[in-house]
Specification:
Layout (H helix, E strand, L loop, with lengths): L11 E4 L17 H17 L4 E4 L6 H4 L5 H13 L3 E3 L3 E2 L4 H20 L5 E4 L20 H12 L5 E5 L6 H6 L6 E8 L23 E6 L5 H18 L4 E4 L18 H17 L4 E4 L6 H16 L1 H10 L1
Parallel strand pairs: 1-2, 1-5, 5-10, 6-7, 6-9, 7-8, 9-10
Antiparallel strand pairs: 3-4
Length: 334
């Protein structure tokens, strides 16, 4: 039975602070601190409107043992050395090194881990880590602007440390979440639904509809690639399939990667969404999570390289997960 009512506001924790701006590549790189700063300005206003339901927390630093939940020791040490030298590339030409990249990436990972722990302990109903969602990093390498895969690390913690039997990972970034998908391709405990631009026109070139998992994981994965130029209606049709797939799995926890690079005007992708898709997806997952797993959602920011688009998309996610404005309207009508 659905436990969420329109009159209910939810406790939403959001990880944001000075540390959120550290994950910023130099030299005019598209993933830079200005994205987080644009969202941060709107976040302050939304939090002020919803001060009873939204709490902003400073990011925490993930430890090496945390990173080992997904990444290899050799790779962690490689990033540490690169961070000290501050030169070269972790993934040429997409992911340059800079001084302190190890700590910056560890804050991104720590924010998602903190959110997982706080939601599982019931201190918050939901949690959002805007600098998280770094879904391309593999176990032993960086990829596509992503150094440590906070989504995969958090998923591994959920199933291997907390012992959850089945969790869902939903990804609406324009780019296929290959680091998460292939990292858990054979694991039936991790149910994945990924709506993205078709790999024939966009990095990383993966995520075909024929990929449904391997070995014991066959059937636990769903890719929904969309042609370049797809807009809101195409997304909503695909996302309804994703939501039904996740609902049938009856997850105990929902991870939501809400990249904003599918919005019209993003310089690195070719989709034509409006922020309506983020409001729609967040609302559907919000309701699903309250019905299936007592509301437990960890949302992570992901991509998005137009600051205004990032702001509008992530603000829509925050408003839907907090349910603050619906609750206020209901209170005024009573």
């Amino acid at each position: 039975m659905l436990t969420l009512r329109l009159s209910d506001a939810c406790r939403l924790g959001i990880c944001y602070g000075l540390e959120s701006r550290l994950y910023s590549f130099p030299g005019g790189h598209p993933l830079n601190r200005f994205r987080a700063e644009a969202f941060g300005k709107s976040l302050s206003n939304i939090a002020a409107e919803c001060e009873d339901t939204i709490t902003i927390l400073r990011p925490r630093l993930a430890g090496v043992d945390d990173l080992r939940l997904f990444h290899t020791d050799e790779y962690i040490e490689q990033v540490r050395r690169a961070s000290e030298s501050g030169t070269g590339f972790l993934d040429y030409p997409d992911t340059p090194t800079f001084p302190g990249v190890f700590e910056a990436a560890s804050y991104a990972a720590g924010g998602s881990l903190e959110g997982l722990d706080l939601v599982l302990s019931r201190k918050y109903d939901h949690f959002f880590n805007p600098i998280g969602g770094l879904h391309h990093a593999a176990r032993g390498r960086a990829s596509g602007f992503c150094v440590f895969n906070d989504a995969a690390i958090s998923i591994a913690r959920a199933v291997d440390v907390f012992g959850l039997k089945r969790v869902a990972y939903v990804d609406i970034d324009a780019h296929h979440g290959d680091g998460v998908f292939y990292g858990f391709e054979s694991d039936p405990r991790i149910v994945i639904a990924d709506v993205h631009e078709d790999g024939s026109s966009l990095f990383p070139g993966s995520g075909g509809a024929n990929e449904t998992g391997k070995r014991k994981g066959v059937g636990s994965k769903l890719n929904l690639p969309l042609p370049a130029g797809s807009g809101d209606s195409e997304f909503i049709e695909a996302f309804d399939k994703a939501a039904a797939f996740i609902d049938d799995a009856r997850p105990e926890f929902v991870f939501f990667q809400c990249g904003a690079d599918g919005l019209d005007g993003d310089p690195l992708a070719h989709l034509r969404y409006s922020a309506r898709v983020h409001a729609y997806a967040a609302k559907r997952l919000h309701e699903l999570a309250h019905e299936r797993c007592t509301g437990r959602i960890l949302a992570m920011g992901g991509g998005g390289y137009d600051s205004a688009n990032v702001d509008s998309a992530w603000s829509a996610v925050v408003r839907e997960l907090s349910n603050c404005h619906e609750a206020k309207q209901s209170a005024r009508s009573d």
